[in-house]
Sequence to fold (229 residues):
Amino acid sequence: AQSVTQPDIHITVSEGASLELRCNYSYGATPYLFWYVQSPGQGLQLLLKYFSGDTLVQGIKGFEAEFKRSQSSFNLRKPSVHWSDAAEYFCAVAPVRGGSNYKLTFGKGTLLTVNP
Amino acid sequence: EAGVTQSPTHLIKTRGQQATLRCSPISGHTSVYWYQQALGLGLQFLLWYDEGEERNRGNFPPRFSGRQFPNYSSELNVNALELEDSALYLCASSSWDGTAEQYFGPGTRLTVT
Fold:
């Protein structure tokens, strides 16, 4: 069964510092990969996605992620964090077209705190 | 373009009662997914509806059920509520274009007392 691991439960960074959130997945084949962000009490907003092609994908709000097949990883990065980036971040996977369904399997999330 | 909407925002029920949660997908989307986000358990897949049919369900008991209407909106019903059903219930919609990209609503916070 597919699984997603986000090894960091909570990360604290200073405003203006760089950020990297880790995500590893376990799946039979390369799945679709996503990063979502959730502000307190809110739904999930899609930051970026990887389906195929270029392994470095750009998303909204200045985020990017790099897919590394050899490491089964899809780490999220931002060069300079803003206070408004404080939220919980979820990595998710879904089977590629032809799979039984497109349900998302989520990691446990990483809570990001930004210090002024 | 209107996003996914869910109602109600908050719902307070007593153990043993039934809860009904509603979701309206983005216009043109035919698939609706339901997820439960319970404290300490993370986001778990509940149900998937497409073209009015239940396509898949997660590891939840039968008292979690739902349906999808001809206009693609969906309803999640939880019968015989238990305290551990307290959670944020998120609905997402997607189009059947093979990309698996899902758009989420703001959620319904269900509290069972």
The mean pLDDT of chain B is 93. Residues 16 and 87 of chain B are 16 Å apart (CA to CA). The longest strand of chain B covers residues 42-50. The interface with chain A takes residues 4, 31, 33, 35, 42-45, 48, 55-56, 58, 90, 92, 94, 98-107, 109 of chain B (CB under 8 Å).
